[in-house]
Design brief:
alpha+beta; Rossmann fold; Beta-Lactamase; Helix Hairpins; 4 domains; five-stranded antiparallel β-sheet; 47% helix; rod-shaped
Length: 526
């Protein structure tokens, strides 16, 4: 209580002490400010007019120390405007006029002022606690962001595609390798989206998805599947369930590995094992099949002896069919044995034009019977090649036979040779032989397997002809390839290194025509 009137100080002290308030007295504003600096108070009752420092100045100074302090102004001659200024502008809680005729008004005002002070302090405490909680949450969020950033950095440092998803198959995190593997351009566009929609383009979970199995069993699950983006490739998928307090149960990390090349290697190993077994059986095949086949051939010759037996034309035609099938069986046996036996390295000088003419002569009868028109175009300046003449003859034979069989209803065959630049060795000359047919072409689904052993689309084929041809040409440092156009035909091109060729490669080599159109030089293989 601050008042320069000692009687009022004593009266107020007595009244408020009786109400069990703890009261401190000051006879001037200076004394009150000094006391206020040394100890806290809940309420100040001050006279408006005092010598030295008046009530409004006291109010201003103590509000500076404690903005929540409540102040009641006492005045004996204040106008209404003075009271409003004290309450609204200077922060006084209430004002009372002297003399204090109604003690009850004083006690009510004191009680309410202290309650307001208490409420304000409680609010201040709650606000401080809320601010502290907000700051703590900000720190936690910052730590989580930092942890997520660290996790992302760890993820990005792993070369294999990794994707973190939750139980609902929502993508939480994926690393750079996963972005590159799936072809995702904008990282933010995929977070929070379902993995089956963003990665597989589906409206529902993939049929082979085993995410829930991994989460429920709490054990990693491994399986293989066709690629989501490219079904022609193969993927190995491992799902690791996460069991920790940070990420919580229900999350999992999916690791994806492209195993297409591994599959190819495995298939090659299986194929090599088959070929090894085939090599071991080849001797038995020759013995078990060729011996009775020779007997069949001998007995057929005996039965065809016109001096001993009188045969009609129909019977002779049947015997011719038997002989043709005997030859076919011999060819099949030879293909199997040639494929299985180790290659013999030879280096003959070969005129590819001569070899081609011999082959055409061999098939001329078959071409006529099959109603196939041949266009033969040979480069008369063609240099020789070096290699296995028997093997190369077998390659040409296989390619020409395939072309004939592709035109069951007849058609046009084009065979040509030319000189050009090698596709295998830069700026080196190469000799090219192409065989084109006007058949239906090769189906897209079969094109990748065309040179694989045992692959065939024919009911009576062995699937070894083109595979053997590929091996023979590869051993001689060359290449064999094909181009096909549905319903328009197929062209097989054989490329071999030119032997001892030193002249400049002509832009348009001279050709000798076999009745067909001059087709010009072959371009290098693409």
């Amino acid at each position: 209580i601050i008042d320069d009137d000692i009687q009022i100080l004593t009266m107020l002290d007595t009244i408020l002490s009786a109400e069990e308030y703890e009261v401190t007295r000051a006879e001037s504003g200076q004394e009150a400010v000094k006391l206020f600096k040394s100890e806290p108070f809940d309420l100040v009752i001050t006279d408006m007019s005092m010598p030295g420092m008046g009530g409004l100045e006291v109010l201003e100074k103590i509000k500076h120390f404690d903005g929540n302090i409540e102040v009641i102004i006492l005045t004996g001659n204040a106008t209404f405007e003075n009271a409003v200024q004290a309450m609204k502008e200077d922060g006084a809680y209430n004002y009372l006029t002297k003399p204090l005729d109604n003690i009850e008004d004083l006690l009510i005002s004191v009680k309410r002022a202290i309650e307001k002070r208490k409420l304000r302090l409680e609010n201040r405490t709650l606000i401080d606690e809320l601010q502290n909680e907000v700051e703590e949450r900000k720190k936690v969020e910052q730590q989580l962001l930092q942890s997520k950033s660290n996790l992302q950095s760890v993820f990005d440092g792993i070369s294999e595609p990794l994707i973190m998803v939750d139980r609902r198959m929502t993508i939480k995190i994926l690393n750079k390798a996963a972005k590159d593997y799936t072809g995702i351009s904008r990282y933010q566009d995929i977070l929070g989206q379902s993995c089956y929609r963003m990665l597989a383009g589906k409206s529902s979970p993939c049929q082979d998805c085993q995410l829930n199995l991994a989460i429920l069993s709490k054990n990693p699950v491994t399986f293989e599947r066709n690629g989501l983006k490219d079904p022609s490739r193969f993927e190995a998928v491992v799902i690791y369930p996460m069991q920790n307090e940070v990420q919580g149960e229900g999350n999992a990390i999916i690791r994806v590995e492209d195993i297409t090349e591994q599959r190819k290697i495995e298939e090659q190993l299986i194929r090599a094992d088959r070929l090894s077994s085939l090599g071991q059986l080849s001797g038995g095949i020759a013995h078990e099949i060729r011996n009775p086949l020779a007997s069949i051939n001998l007995f057929t010759d005996i039965l065809c002896d016109e001096d001993k037996y009188d045969r009609g034309d129909h019977e002779m035609e049947l015997f011719d069919e038997i002989r043709e099938n005997i030859i076919r069986i011999e060819q099949i046996i030879k293909r199997v044995l040639d494929f299985a036996k180790p290659p013999v390295a030879t280096s003959d000088e070969i005129d590819l034009n001569d070899l081609t003419r011999e082959n055409v002569k061999f098939w001329s009868s078959k071409l006529r019977k099959s109603n196939i028109h041949l266009n033969l175009n040979l480069n008369i300046s063609l240099p020789s090649v070096r290699g296995d003449v028997i093997g190369l003859q077998q390659v040409i034979n296989n390619v020409v036979l395939n072309a004939i069989e592709a035109m069951a209803e007849g058609g046009n065959m084009d065979i040509r040779t030319a000189l050009g630049l090698s596709s295998l060795a830069a700026n080196n000359p190469a000799v090219f032989l192409s065989v084109s047919d006007s058949g239906p072409g090769i189906e897209t689904a079969h094109q990748e397997d065309i040179f694989n052993p045992f692959f065939t689309t024919k009911a009576t084929g062995t699937g070894l002809g083109l595979s053997i041809s590929h091996q023979i040409i590869k051993r001689q440092g060359g290449a064999i390839s094909f181009k096909t156009n549905p319903q328009k035909g197929t062209t097989f091109t054989i490329e071999l290194p030119a032997a001892g060729f030193k002249n400049e490669i002509p832009a348009a080599p001279l050709l000798e025509s076999g009745g067909g159109k001059n087709l010009g030089a072959l371009p290098p293989l693409e």
